[in-house]
Amino acid sequence: MTPRDPDLEDKRDDDDDDDDRVVFRVAATPADLLKVMGVRGIVFHDEQGVSWEDEFDADDAGAVHVVGEADGQPVASGRLQVMEGGWAKLGRIAVREQWRGRGYAHGMVGALLQEAHTRGVTKLKLHAQVYLEDFYAGYGFARRGGVFDECGIDHILMTREGG
What we know:
Distance between the termini: 33 Å
Number of strands: 7
Structural class: alpha+beta
CATH class: Alpha Beta
Largest sheet: 7 strands, mixed
Shape: globular
Number of domains: 1
């Protein structure tokens, strides 16, 4: 299975007006967390076939969640897990279908990287869907090792050190 998320490919919209109306922020309330989980359920469960049990895991409780909102609607989500040894893991980066192709995935990655920096993290990792290797390489992430299965989807480990 190779799901495709066009927004996560390196296709930025040259019209910055669309990006100006999206706000990326740390989910601070129960309502914010529901928005994050809603986006994830739509993208990963409904579109990509990930089971509910795999999508919503024990790592959610200790993670920092970021929500992206456009015109009052949740359109993007991501999470940051701060780990031992100065590491953090980016994950669950998703953009709802009708808002793809506008650079919102770039905005979400930027928000997660900023949050990691704010927390003093200098070493980052993520499990990227294979087709997104070049997207994340654009942020300084490098592939480590081979392809592995995660939730029925081919992934690779990517890391970035030095903030």
